[in-house]
Design goal:
The protein is α/β, with parallel strands linked by helices. It has 10 helices and 11 strands. Strands 1-11-8-7-5-6 form a 6-stranded parallel β-sheet. A 3-stranded parallel β-sheet has the order 3-2-4, with helices on both faces. Helix 7 links the parallel strand 5 and strand 6. The longest helix is centred in the last third of the chain and has 22 residues. The chain starts with a strand and ends with a helix. Bound molecules: guanine. The site of guanine (GUN) has 9 residues, from strand 4 and helix 6.
Length: 281
């Protein structure tokens, strides 16, 4: 069996085109404020992609680039200002933050109604409780959208998520549980990982190690979602050994062009949703 490619770039483009159309019909433009602290090169690339995508669909975007040594008090002051501004619908603090800043403290400061990344503990809780008002974190939301583009009902499927981060592993596990999957969360201390993965109808790899998942981890016919973005000497690599996995899976996301573009499309969608909610009340 050769897997079909889950083309995130194409699906994301479709979502962006639809959003652009919807936004063109609104009286005002949705607006997003992005905060980046320090000079992390990968973060700078991600933020530029987010700005470009916002501009393309008609979301006003303003980026605040702050010095790496900014204090928590100063950063919180900016967040409060944006929280209280009627002209700002969404607020995003790019991660990772410099070591002296606590992401928990900073992310909790953002008003949950403007938390388009879905990282505020209130939104985490709303996702757990399957509340439709939750902002769902962008990468997990994009992963679910990709899976649903080829499979409607996920009830009873075995899903294995490798990785337990607050950005990907944990929230995607909750979303899959909400879809009635039987979910296993594996991590660096998990024993017999290949055995566990071989039972996965859906395998989500968020490991951070290039080409870690070989064919021995894959159940024939599985859906493979590769969240890895590993910069190696041979270029960008996912967490999955693509050439091997494609021979065993039914569907697989490429790197690049799989999950990455969906993350950005979901950020645009969350910002548009924030705009709608704030203009309804
Ligand atoms: N760093 C890595 N992924 C993300 C994300 O989805 N949002 C933010 N704000 N920072 C990130």
């Amino acid at each position: 069996m050769t897997a079909q490619i889950l083309n995130g770039k194409q699906l994301a483009q479709q979502i962006r085109t639809e959003l652009k159309q919807k936004i063109s019909l609104t009286q005002a433009s949705p607006s997003l404020s992005v905060i980046i602290v320090g000079n992390d090169p990968a973060s700078e690339i991600y933020v530029r992609s987010k700005e470009k995508a916002c501009n393309e669909v008609g979301i006003k975007v303003h980026t605040y680039k702050l010095a790496a040594d900014i204090s928590a008090a100063e950063l919180n002051e900016l967040i409060d200002l944006l929280n209280n501004s009627h002209d700002v619908n969404g607020i995003l603090v790019q991660l990772p933050l410099p070591k002296h800043l606590s992401p928990q403290e900073i992310l909790t400061r953002i008003k949950p109604e403007k938390d388009v990344d879905g990282f505020h503990p209130l939104n985490t809780g709303l996702v757990l409780q399957k509340q439709p008002s939750a902002f769902i974190p962008c990468t997990p939301k994009g992963i679910l959208r990709l899976i649903h583009s080829v499979k409607g009902d996920l009830s009873g499927l075995n899903a294995v998520v490798i990785g337990r981060s607050h950005i990907v592993g944990l929230p995607v596990s909750h979303l899959l549980l909400n879809e009635n999957c039987t979910v296993t969360i594996a991590h660096s201390k998990t024993k017999n990982l290949p055995d566990i993965c071989q039972k996965a109808d859906i395998l989500i790899a968020s490991v951070g190690k290039p080409e870690f998942i070989t064919k021995d981890y894959i159940k024939p016919g599985a859906i493979i979602i590769d969240v890895g973005i590993n910069r190696t000497q041979e270029g960008l690599k996912g967490d999955v050994k693509y050439g091997e996995a494609i021979e065993k899976a039914s569907y697989i996301t490429p790197v690049p062009g799989g999950v990455g573009p969906m993350t950005i499309a979901m950020l645009l969608e969350n910002t548009y949703e924030a705009f709608l909610k704030q203009n309804r009340s």
